């Protein structure tokens, strides 16, 4: 059973990201402010939910949320500032897009770059503990998946409509065969063991 709130005095937004461990595509983040009475028995960490249910939950979250926003940081920015800072930047961008300014943030994970004016708490595995972080994980994941499916049509050989930019064997083989695209993160190394020989692309 997820918890409704971390604290009960201030307007609270939950934040999470998706795509941090990918080889290609942006990192996406969402910020969500939910009503105090929001409950959904199926809401959980997006990684624990089947794709069809994630999209059904996204519709319900967007209909019932007091405020929500989604933002991203692209592969060029990721290479410039590293993926950890890019994840935090995506969250900051989502927070700034909210039409209602939160007074407190709960962040999935154990680290965050402090917002200039909003206090926060980091919650390890927060997407399986708090409604608003779980909701943010759903939005970040589904919006990112939509983006990866869109660019997959442009470059189908990288199988992004299935792997969503993660380093599956087929994806890594395609990088080693066809090279990087503008969507790939050049600061991430790609390796593939073939016949006992490790091939690496930097």
Enumerate the strands of the largest sheet in spatial order, edge to edge or round the barrel. 3-2-1-4-5
Residues in helices, as a percent range: 25-40%
Q: What would the average pLDDT be, to the nearest integer? A: 92
Structural class comes to alpha/beta
C-alpha geometry: globular
How many helical stretches? Answer: 6
> How many DSSP E strands?
7
CATH architecture of the largest domain: 2-Layer Sandwich
InterPro entries: RNase_HII, RNase_HII/HIII, RNase_HII/HIII_dom, RNaseH-like_sf, RNaseH_sf
Keywords: Cytoplasm, Endonuclease, Hydrolase, Manganese, Metal-binding, Nuclease
Protein name: Ribonuclease HII
Domain RNase H type-2: 10-200
Give your account of this protein's structure.
This protein has 202 residues and is an alpha/beta fold. It folds into two domains: 12-152, Ribonuclease H-like superfamily/Ribonuclease H (Nucleotidyltransferase, domain 5, 2-Layer Sandwich); 167-201, no CATH class. The protein is 36% helix and 20% strand. It contains six helices and seven strands; from the N terminus they run ββαβααββαααββ. A five-stranded mixed sheet has the order 3-2-1-4-5. The protein has a two-stranded antiparallel ribbon with strand order 6-7. α2 packs across α3. The longest helix has 22 residues, at 131-152. The N and C termini lie far apart (44 Å). Belongs to the RNase HII family. Endonuclease that specifically degrades the RNA of RNA-DNA hybrids.
């Amino acid at each position: 059973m997820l918890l409704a709130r971390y604290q009960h005095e201030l307007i609270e937004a939950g934040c999470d990201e998706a795509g941090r461990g990918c080889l290609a595509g942006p990192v996406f983040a969402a910020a969500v402010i939910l009503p105090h009475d929001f409950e959904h028995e199926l809401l959980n960490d997006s990684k624990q939910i089947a794709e069809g249910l994630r999209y059904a939950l996204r519709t319900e979250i967007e209909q019932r949320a007091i405020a929500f926003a989604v933002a991203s940081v692209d592969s060029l920015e990721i290479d410039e500032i590293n993926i950890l800072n890019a994840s935090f930047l995506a969250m900051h961008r989502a927070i700034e897009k909210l039409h209602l300014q939160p007074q407190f943030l709960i962040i999935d994970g154990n680290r965050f770059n402090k917002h200039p004016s909003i206090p926060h708490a980091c919650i390890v595995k927060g997407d399986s503990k708090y409604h608003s972080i779980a909701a943010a994980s759903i939005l970040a994941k589904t919006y990112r998946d939509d983006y990866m499916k869109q660019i997959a049509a442009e470059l189908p050989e990288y199988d992004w409509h299935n792997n969503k930019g993660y380093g599956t064997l087929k994806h890594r083989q395609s990088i080693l065969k066809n090279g990087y695209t503008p969507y790939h993160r050049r600061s991430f190394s790609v390796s593939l063991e073939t016949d006992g020989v490790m091939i690496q692309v930097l």
